[in-house]
C-alpha cells in the first residue's frame, strides 16, 4: 500500500551533496557536460560550502587566489579578477555565487535541505535519499562534496548556559557581522582559524585573551594586491599552467624543493629559509624550501629552529614568548599569517596556556581557568572540526545489505582513491577520505572530471553499477598508511588523524604522496577500464 503521508519521490540521475567547490563543479559536469538530471542539496542558506559558513573576522584562504579557483573554463578564469594574493572569504563566496549564476546551476540547487539518509536500494539499483523535511529522491548516482572541514568541533565546558556574554564558533558564524570594538574577547584555539581571528579581532577589541593549548609554527603570509595583467598571463596559458600545478605534490603555484635540508651548508640553509620567510606562505615554507622537512626529523628541526628564532624576535614579553614558542615537530598543517606574533605582542592581547591553567568552565562573567576568572563579553571557539569523516557519519548512509558507512568507517575511513567505498555502489566522494592532502579547488575539479568520465563510461557501456572492490579499497588504504609512515605528519595529535576529537579512532585519512602521484593512480585506473572497480550490467535495473 502506498504511504500517502510521504512526499512523492523525485527521480534523478545524480544527487550531489554540498554546494561548495566540489558540488558546484560536479553539478556543472553532470548538468552542462553530460546533460543529465542532477541536483545539489545543501543544508546552508546559500552556495559556497566552507565559505558560506566561515565568515569570522579575518577569514581568508592561505592559498594564492590564482590557484584557489577552477580552471575548467578559460573565459571564467579570464573574467574573474582576484584582488589579493590571498582571497578574503567574501571574495571567494562572491566567486562561487558567480560560478553558480554563470553556469546556470541554481535551478538545480536546493538550499536549506538537510540530507538525513541515503540508502542503496538493491531492487531499483538507485540511492533512496531523504531530507529532514521529508523530501525524497531516487538517484542512480550519489556524489558527496561534503568538505573535510565542515562539521564543527565545539568542546563542551560546564556552565556555558550561565554565561551572560555571547558564544560564537568560527565554523558557524552569523551572517550579520559582529562588532568587537572595545569588547573583551576570548578566543579558544590557535589553528589556522584562531590565528586569523586573533590578528583581526585584536585590532579592535578592548582586550583579547587567547586560550592556547599547543603553540604553533606560523610564518608570514605576505599578502599583497594582484596585478590583473599577472592573471591574464596565466589565462593565456591556462591548461598548461594548471597541469603543472596539479602534477606537483601540494597543488600550489610555487616551485617545490628537490633538495634535502641537510644537503646544504648551515649558511645556505639559513638563506633559503630567510628567502621563504620574506616570500611568505606556509606551504611554501614547508615544501618550497627543502624536500624533506615533512619527512626527516633532522631537517625538520632546522626549520623549526628558524621559526622559533623569528618568533623570539617579535614577541617582547618573555612570558608571552615562552607560551607562544613551539617545541615539538613542525609537522602540522603549515600555517601563515598576517602579523600574528605582532598581534600577540600587542598590549591589549594576553595569552593563557591552558595546559598549565586548564579551562574549568564558563561563569556568568567569562571563563574560569585553574588560575582564576577572566571576564569576557565574547568567547570565540576557533576549535576546528570533526574533520574528514565527521560530515559523513552524521548522515545515515547505507550501502549494500544495509551496510552503514559509519560502521564501515568505525576504525577510520576507507575508500578506493578516496572516492569509492566498497559496498557503496555508484557513490563517489569528491575530496573524500583517504584522499589527497593539497590545495583543494584544482584537485576537486580534477576529481569531478574523473567521476563524470566514469559516469559517461557507465552510460556508454550500459552499466548499472560501479563499485570499488574490497581488495582495491584495502590496497589503497595500505598505500596511504605506507606513505604516511614515511612522513612526520602522523607523529603529532591533530585533525588529520582524528586525534582532535576525544574518543574518535585515530586513523590514516590522507594520501600523502602528492596530487601528481595521485593523478597517476586514478588515470591508470580509468585507462585500464576502471580497474579496482566491479562493474555490473544493466539487467537488474531493467527488471525494475
Ligand atoms: P584546528 O587546526 O583543528 O585548530 C583547533 C584549535 O583549537 C587548536 O589550537 C586546538 O588545540 C584548539 N582546541 C581544540 N579543542 C580545544 C580544547 N578543548 N581546549 C583548548 N583548545 C582546544 O582548526 P582550524 O579551524 O584552525 O583549522 C582547521 C583547518 O581548516 C585548517 O587546517 C585549514 O585547512 C582550514 P590543539 O592544537 O589541539 O592543542
Topology:
Elements lengths: L8 E9 L3 H13 L4 E4 L8 H4 L20 H6 L9 H14 L6 E2 L4 E7 L4 E6 L4 E9 L21 E4 L14 E5 L3 H10 L5 E6 L5 E3 L7 H8 L2 H9 L19 H14 L2 H6 L9 H18 L3 H7 L10 E3 L2 H6 L3 E5 L5 E4 L3 E4 L2 E4 L2 E4 L8 H4 L2 E3 L6 H4 L18 E3 L5 E2 L3 H21 L2 E6 L1 H16 L24 E2 L3 H13 L5 E5 L1 H4 L2
Parallel strand pairs: 1-2, 1-6, 2-3, 4-17, 6-18, 7-16, 8-9, 8-16, 9-12, 10-11, 19-21
Antiparallel strand pairs: 4-5, 5-6, 13-14, 14-15, 20-22
Ligand NA7 binds next to α5.
Q: Over all CA atoms, what is the radius of gyration?
A: 24 Å
| Classification by helices and strands | alpha/beta
Q: Can you give the helix content as a percent range?
A: 25-40%
Question: Main β-sheet, in a few words?
Answer: 8 strands, mixed
Average pLDDT rating: 96
How many beta strands in the DSSP annotation? 22
Question: Count the helices. How many?
Answer: 18
The fraction of residues assigned to DSSP E strands is 15-25%
Description:
Strands 1, 2, 3, 4, 5, 6, 17 and 18 form an 8-stranded mixed sheet that branches. Strands 7-16-8-9-12 form a 5-stranded parallel sheet. Helix 1 runs parallel beside helix 15 (440-460). The two termini are 18 Å apart. Mean pLDDT is 96; it is low at 539-544. It has helices spanning 21-33, 50-53, 74-79, 89-102, 192-201, 228-235, 238-246, 266-279, 282-287, 297-314, 318-324, 340-345, 390-393, 405-408, 440-460, 470-485, 515-527, 539-542, and strands spanning 9-17, 38-41, 109-110, 115-121, 126-131, 136-144, 166-169, 184-188, 207-212, 218-220, 335-337, 349-353, 359-362, 366-369, 372-375, 378-381, 396-398, 427-429, 435-436, 463-468, 510-511, 533-537. 33% of the residues lie in helices and 18% in strands. The longest helix is centred in the C-terminal third of the chain and has 21 residues, at 440-460. The chain is built from 18 helices and 22 strands. Strand 8, helix 5 (192-201) and strand 9 (207-212) form a beta-alpha-beta unit. It has 544 residues and is an alpha/beta fold. The chain binds ligand NA7.
Amino acid at each position: 500500500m502506498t504511504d500517502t503521508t510521504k512526499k512523492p519521490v523525485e527521480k534523478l540521475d545524480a544527487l550531489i551533496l554540498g554546494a561548495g567547490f566540489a558540488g558546484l563543479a560536479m553539478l556543472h559536469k553532470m548538468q552542462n557536460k553530460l546533460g543529465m538530471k542532477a541536483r545539489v542539496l545543501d543544508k546552508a542558506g546559500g552556495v559556497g560550502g566552507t565559505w558560506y559558513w566561515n565568515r569570522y573576522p579575518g577569514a581568508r584562504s592561505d592559498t594564492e587566489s590564482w590557484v584557489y579557483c577552477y580552471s575548467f573554463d578559460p573565459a571564467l578564469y579570464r573574467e574573474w579578477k582576484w584582488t589579493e594574493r590571498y582571497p578574503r572569504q567574501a571574495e571567494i563566496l562572491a566567486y562561487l555565487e558567480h560560478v553558480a549564476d554563470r553556469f546556470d546551476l541554481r535551478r538545480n540547487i536546493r538550499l536549506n535541505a538537510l540530507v538525513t539518509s541515503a540508502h542503496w536500494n538493491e531492487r531499483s539499483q538507485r540511492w533512496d535519499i531523504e531530507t529532514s523535511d521529508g523530501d525524497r529522491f531516487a538517484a542512480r548516482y550519489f556524489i558527496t562534496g561534503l568538505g573535510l572541514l565542515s562539521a564543527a568541533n565545539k568542546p563542551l565546558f560546564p556552565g556555558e548556559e550561565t554565561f551572560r556574554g555571547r558564544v560564537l564558533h568560527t565554523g558557524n558564524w552569523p551572517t550579520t557581522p559582529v562588532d568587537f570594538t572595545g569588547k573583551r574577547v576570548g578566543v579558544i584555539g590557535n589553528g589556522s582559524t584562531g590565528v586569523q581571528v586573533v590578528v583581526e579581532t585584536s585590532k579592535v577589541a578592548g582586550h583579547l585573551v587567547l586560550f592556547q593549548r599547543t603553540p604553533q609554527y606560523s610564518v608570514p603570509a605576505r599578502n599583497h594586491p594582484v596585478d590583473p595583467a599577472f592573471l591574464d598571463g596565466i589565462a593565456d596559458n591556462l591548461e598548461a599552467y594548471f597541469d603543472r600545478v596539479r602534477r606537483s605534490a601540494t597543488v600550489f603555484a610555487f616551485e617545490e624543493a628537490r633538495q634535502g635540508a641537510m644537503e646544504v651548508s648551515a649558511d645556505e640553509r639559513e638563506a633559503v629559509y630567510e628567502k621563504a620567510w620574506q616570500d611568505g606562505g606556509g606551504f611554501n615554507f614547508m615544501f618550497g624550501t627543502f624536500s624533506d622537512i615533512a619527512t626527516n626529523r633532522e631537517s625538520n628541526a632546522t626549520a623549526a629552529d628558524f621559526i622559533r628564532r623569528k618568533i623570539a624576535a617579535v614577541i617582547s614579553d618573555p612570558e608571552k614568548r615562552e607560551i607562544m614558542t613551539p617545541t615539538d615537530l613542525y609537522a602540522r598543517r603549515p600555517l601563515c599569517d598576517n602579523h600574528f606574533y605582532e598581534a600577540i605582542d600587542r598590549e591589549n592581547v594576553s595569552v593563557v596556556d591552558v595546559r598549565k591553567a586548564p579551562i574549568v568552565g564558563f561563569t556568568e562573567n567569562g571563563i574560569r581557568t585553574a588560575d582564576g576568572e577572566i571576564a569576557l563579553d565574547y568567547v570565540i571557539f576557533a576549535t576546528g572540526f570533526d574533520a574528514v569523516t565527521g560530515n559523513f557519519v552524521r548522515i545515515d548512509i547505507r550501502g549494500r545489505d544495509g551496510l552503514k558507512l559509519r560502521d564501515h568507517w568505525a576504525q577510520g575511513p576507507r575508500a578506493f582513491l578516496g572516492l569509492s567505498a566498497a559496498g557503496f555502489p555508484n557513490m563517489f566522494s569528491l575530496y573524500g577520505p583517504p584522499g589527497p592532502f593539497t590545495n583543494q579547488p584544482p584537485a576537486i575539479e580534477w576529481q569531478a572530471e574523473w567521476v563524470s568520465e566514469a559516469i559517461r563510461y557507465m552510460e556508454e557501456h550500459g552499466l548499472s553499477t560501479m563499485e570499488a572492490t574490497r581488495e582495491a579499497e584495502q590496497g589503497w588504504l595500505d598505500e596511504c598508511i605506507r606513505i604516511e609512515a614515511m612522513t612526520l605528519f602522523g607523529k603529532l595529535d591533530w585533525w588529520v588523524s582524528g586525534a582532535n576529537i576525544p574518543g574518535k579512532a585515530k586513523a590514516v585519512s590522507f594520501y600523502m604522496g602528492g596530487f601528481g602521484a595521485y593523478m597517476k593512480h586514478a588515470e591508470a585506473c580509468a585507462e585500464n577500464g576502471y580497474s579496482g572497480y566491479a562493474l555490473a550490467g544493466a539487467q537488474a535495473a531493467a527488471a525494475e
